[in-house]
Amino acid sequence: MSDETLLDVRGLQTWYPIKQGMMRRTTGWIQAATDVGFSIAPGETLALVGESGCGKSTVGRSILRLESAQKGEVLFEGRDLLKLDDDALRAARQHVQIIFQDPMASLDPRMRIRDQIAEGMQSFGIGANEKERTERVAAMLERVQLDASAMDRYPHEFSGGQRQRICIARALAVEPRLLVCDESVSALDVSIQAQILNLLREIQEELGLSYLFITHDLSVVKYLAHQVAVMYLGKIVEQGPTARIFESPAHPYTEGLLAAIPSIDPARRGGAPPVLGDVPSPSDPPPGCHFHTRCPVVMDRCRSEAPRLLEIESGAARCFLRES
Amino acid sequence: MALLSVRDLRTAFPSAAGPLPVVDGVSFDLSKGEVLALVGESGSGKSMTALSTLRLVPKPGRVVSGSVKLDGEELLDLPVTEMRRIRGGRISMIFQEPMTCLNPVVRVGAQVVEALQLHESINAADARARARELFVEVGIPDPDERLDAHPHQLSGGLKQRVMIAMALSTRPEILIADEPTTALDVTVQAQILALLRDLQKKRDAAILLITHDLGIVNELADRVAVMYAGRLVEVASRVELLSDPRHPYTQGLLRSIPALSPPGAPLPEIPGVVPSPDQWPKGCRFSTRCTKRFEPCDDVFPEETAPSEGRRLFCHAEEGGAS
């Protein structure tokens, strides 16, 4: 890991209140993210992975303050984003951009591509006049391998993959240093997904951007990420360099997740499912280790005692088995 | 004789420019107890092919021509009432989203009982006992409690199991499974795939599996038919297709899976996008994206060839025109 840090998240907690009854009293909490910490170096990709309900998207959104975290720090270039006032936050958002799963939901259907890309540039003072901004819009579209003439068209005239390219162009236009990609390739067909993954990697190499890549798909992670953090029911259960995670996972959940990916090796099929049962509700996570209800190597103490995130040789794991 | 035999099936939707085909001359056989996967990306026509066999194409689309025979009997000519008996009877279907076939306000046990009573004369108590057996068979824990649950009280994986129980209730000879695990988390998907594999073996039912995921194909299928833009491009056994794909599209599809790529190298891409039906090329549908394209590909759709026993291929380049 590099000594330099672009983003340093510490002790982040985002819980959503469950309100019931006429008085809308808070009767419980959805514990979406608890004590989440990780850091991303400049030019690096950290993948935040896990199944639905694990809290990975909440973490991404909390970093951008699209959700309000109750606790923790989000240090971006040394400044805590959670403490910024509205003006300072707006300014900081220039450098932290997000790309979602569904590009159609984040593009305005009635606005030409040119105006959608130029809008952000204008609000951050990029480009002195309209001519300069138009030139930059064209350059950004070409950077994502679209024709510059795309700027005069509307979102519905493009395919899903092309729309995702437009979202990437719009994010790049304001010169971000961190791109949060929330399931950004999950809805794409595999042949289109490969195109977008290659594009993201080229852009990173060229511009030195950092990515926080939020996904449920571990095969995508292997291709793109330098570091991986695995979440389960609101907590990071394991983190470390990508190669180590794939070669020797240190948490039983990571191991199960990897084993559950259907292989396309025709010699391998028909294995027993590695993890049984369903993910419990984050509003009522099991006591002790959250994973103990599904863990194939559960021990007695896991049912009552919550393991800490323990440092291991390469990364960290939240499992009593890693105590030395 | 094949259990299900589909010949030259064509399904189209009306448009201002005339009928737009979405399935365009598809033929295949499904044998008793066989798992055949129809594989393709969005817009390939794989789901429409499955819906066409059951005459469930959403309006204003319709099956324009072709033949769908179940044990030699033409389904496309069958009176509506008889077709209804076949659906959910000899052929049943499970979907990606269980809520497309579960009623949110009815207890799931009652829904399975209803499905049973629709297809055979059985009293309520016996039907409930059968529903319970089915719940046990599909691995639903605490079946007595779960029979009385409403769908929203069940997790995604359990809803999928209920839907499978319902689909199996009439002992179908063919199960059509349309992206049955796509909406599930990967650990739950592994459980449902194992369940489908066990049930298929135990009941010797045939499955027509619709999927975009070659990993799922490998887990379940015996044979694979790859579709692209409304047409078949290649049919082969699971092992042949995954280890020795012949069509440039199948080859590209396999290569672009990130898990297979060595770390650090760019992913091999298939350039361009799947054309929409109004922009399908005149010749081979894949010609606009194919790296092996040569003259005849643009104008003439390739004839079917058999590169080896049991394999089917639709490609000019692999016919020997280029190498």
Walkthrough of the structure:
The complex is a heterodimer of chains A (324) and B (323). Chain A has 324 residues and is an alpha/beta fold. Chain A is 30% helix and 24% strand. Chain A contains ten helices and twelve strands. In chain A, helix 4 (113-123) packs parallel to helix 6 (160-172). The radius of gyration of chain A is 21 Å and the shape is globular. The two termini of chain A are 23 Å apart. In chain B, the strands form two sheets. In chain B, strands 6-7-8-3-9-10-11 form a seven-stranded mixed β-sheet, with helices on both faces. A four-stranded antiparallel β-sheet of chain B has the order 2-1-4-5. The mean pLDDT of chain B is 92. Chain B is an alpha/beta fold. Chain B has helices at 46-53, 80-86, 108-119, 124-137, 143-147, 156-168, 186-203, 214-220, 238-243, 248-255, 295-299; strands at residues 4-13, 20-30, 35-39, 62-70, 73-74, 91-94, 174-178, 206-211, 223-228, 231-237, 312-313. Chain B has a domain at 98-171. Chain B is built from eleven helices and eleven strands. In chain B, helix 3 packs across helix 4 and helix 4 packs across helix 6. Chains A and B meet through helix 7, helix 8 and helix 10 of A and helix 6, helix 7, helix 8, helix 9 and helix 10 of B.
